[in-house]
Design brief:
Strand content: 5-15%
Structural class: alpha+beta
Mean pLDDT: 89
Strand order of the largest sheet: 3-2-1-4-5
Number of domains: 1
Distance between the termini: 33 Å
Shape: globular
Length: 271
Amino acid sequence: MATLTGYAVKISWLGADHTYVLSSEGHKWGCWGRDAGGKAICSGNGSASVANCISQPKSTSGLIYAVTGVCHQTANRILYPARAIVSRARGYWASSLVYGTYGTDGLAWIIRRTACGMAKGAETSAATGRSAGLSTARGEVGYLKAIDALYTTAAKKAASPLALGRALAKPSNLVLMETDITVAYRLGKDARPTSVSGVKKMQKALFANKVTLDGKYNNNQISKKKYADRVNDLVKKMLDRAEKELGAEQFTRIFGLERGERIGLVDKASL
């Protein structure tokens, strides 16, 4: 059993932190970027061999950068055997509402996770992941269990190839289902149905525009720079709308950002 540790590196111009993962056995997973110079933000015990299997190819974990996830989702996948997530990274909660915890290709993630566990003949560790300061983030264990249950249930419902294809055709559906869990976790007893519906409304507006951008990018109809800029603009518009509709207090509690604070999620250098 190894120790898997998530790190965050400040990217001033972007606003959001870059994240990467190291193991006590010497693995370095850059997650689309650098793999040194950061601050440890989470840690847990788990199989390094399973984590390495999940990370393939080349520390991307099967994600398409900026389309199905960014470094936060990549790191979360690699950290899965330790049941830890990089939730202390700046910009993480905005990222999770755009790409989910493990990427928008959620059912493909379930397949990858299972295949890597079977390939190594080992179960992922049931050990609890730890957050900054090497202590368990309050409520994060239950939060991750709820996220896991959501995807496991979705995978069972999509057991047939046809159902799986339909589910993967609309990956944002699972991210929207995560929102109920995320808002409840972030707001606690102050969570209201109006808060959840308000956030989902903003997400749907972003997804509707992003799916068009993704299509253009995948078909080489838009430059990498322009694609990154436009996705980051969509994120900033979502945050503008969120603060206006939710109010400063709930905005800060859900997104982990201060009033008026805006970030981008896509680093052009990683495309």
